[in-house]
Design goal:
452 residues, alpha/beta, TIM Barrel, monooxygenase
């Protein structure tokens, strides 16, 4: 079989999709706080043979702008957030083949807790779970967990490296054949095949043994989306599925080549790399362009200000639009550094203005990600161009929900399948089987390179 793309749906357990204006779309459903809403989306995605539905998350309402929630609440800018794990499990229990991924932070949770909830979900779903590893972004999240401020950027990743060692160590404490269920002898499991972890490190101490057996796929698939230099190191060491953002195809080709080389150096050749995109599809080009114009007009200036303040961990209300950032201010942007670096590159200035930073980020607008707009054939053409030279698949983002996924599954998926670029059936029952990832041997992660 020729190489085929992976398709992942980018979801939020909140009042909007990752496009914050999506709730203003007339076709957006308003029952986002019900099980039926997410189960409906899951069935759509499984009908379209998507590999994975993954839920992004933040641990605070966006309130860094003016140190207030008023702007966020009034404009509905990701203003309500359900627990993503419970939401993801709700979707998983309504599907049979669709992989289910969830974001959980290494900064504000304990490794044993994260290891257990994901291992539990993986067992309950028959080996379809994935964990999107994040280090969180701002002081608002810190405040919700009783901390005065967010950890420094590189320190977060140092902590996350050890966090991964503890989680993977716990996942590997049970051997595959540890459970006997031998009623005749009265032996439930073989004690020699269940091991203590006994981890003691710089950040964590965890004894074990773990409480959850290995799943049908060994352990959950690990997703990572680090974009900074340190984040890329982390992704190359731990990520089995790597999410990226490419502003255009040329940048994507160069970045994909670099990531592939880094992954190969770390012994991670099978890892899939997938950029996030917004598809806007219509039966004709004019219909698609009309849809896009309407969707773009939903965005409001408040969306960008609230969300950019959130991810940069910086109150943008303190800057006038045409006021340049000082060197010290740029260095203080402790959130997503790739946004800061992009603004410097796009403006051609070492000290971009606040307006230039907002424009470069695309935050709060559909232009934050590449937009594939057109007929099914035209959207498939664009996806094929990227797939052949810059990625292994796509993180498909919704301009509104569930309609954007309904359109994509109805119109684009059949065209991709006709071209032999996308699966017509699932390869197996587990997420690893469907992604083409090998079932991990116990403790295999201990011998892989660290990507540095």
């Amino acid at each position: 079989m020729s190489r085929q793309m992976k398709l992942i749906a980018f979801l939020q357990a909140q009042n909007c999709s990752n496009y914050p204006a999506s709730w203003r779309h007339p076709a957006s459903m308003t029952d986002w706080n019900t099980a039926e809403y997410y189960q409906r989306i899951g069935r759509i995605l499984e009908h379209g043979k998507f590999h994975l539905a993954f839920f992004d998350d933040r641990l605070a309402i966006p309130d860094r702008y003016a140190d207030d929630v008023a702007l966020t609440i009034e404009h509905g800018i990701r203003a309500a957030k359900l627990d993503p794990m419970m939401t993801a499990l709700t979707m998983g229990l309504a599907t049979r083949h669709l992989g289910i991924g969830c974001t959980y932070s290494t900064t504000y949770y304990e490794p044993f807790h994260v290891a257990r909830i994901f291992a539990t979900m993986d067992n309950l779903l028959g080996g379809r779970a994935a964990w999107n590893v994040v280090t969180s972004v701002n002081d608002s999240e810190a405040a919700n967990f009783g901390r005065d401020e967010h950890l420094a950027h590189d320190l977060r990743y140092d902590r996350a490296d050890e966090f991964m060692e503890v989680v993977l160590g716990h996942w590997d404490t049970w051997e595959d054949d540890a459970i006997l269920h031998d009623r005749a002898s009265g032996r439930f499991a073989d004690p020699a095949k269940i091991h203590r972890l006994a981890h003691e490190g710089r950040f964590f101490k965890s004894r074990g043994p773990f409480t959850v057996p290995r799943s049908a796929q060994g352990h959950p698939v690990v997703i990572q989306a680090g974009q900074s230099g340190r984040g890329k190191e982390f992704a190359s060491r731990w990520g089995e599925l790597v999410f990226v953002i490419y502003p255009n195809l040329a940048v994507g080709q160069a970045s994909y080549k670099e990531m592939r080389e880094t992954l190969a150096a770390a012994g991670r050749e099978t890892t899939a790399v997938a950029p996030a995109v917004y598809p806007v599809v219509g039966e004709t080009q004019t219909m698609a362009e009309d849809k896009l114009a309407m969707i773009e007009n939903l965005a409001q200036p408040a969306d960008a200000l609230a969300l950019l303040s959130e991810v940069l961990n910086y109150d943008l209300s303190s800057k006038r639009p045409n006021e340049p950032f000082t060197v010290e201010e740029l260095e203080s942007l402790s959130g997503m550094r790739n946004i800061r670096d992009r603004a410097v590159k796009m403006s051609g200035k070492p000290n971009p203005t606040m307006a230039e930073l907002v424009k470069a980020s695309g935050r709060g607008t559909i232009r934050e990600l590449p937009v594939f707009c057109g007929t099914p054939a035209r959207v498939a053409d664009q996806m094929q161009d990227w797939f052949e030279t810059a990625c292994d698949g796509f993180v498909v983002s919704a301009t509104h929900s569930p309609g954007a996924y309904e359109d994509f599954v109805r119109l684009v998926v059949p065209e991709l399948q006709r071209r032999g670029l996308f699966q017509t059936e699932y390869a197996g029952r587990t997420l690893r089987e469907n992604l083409g990832l090998a079932r991990p041997a116990r403790n295999a992660w201990r011998t892989q390179g660290d990507g540095r």
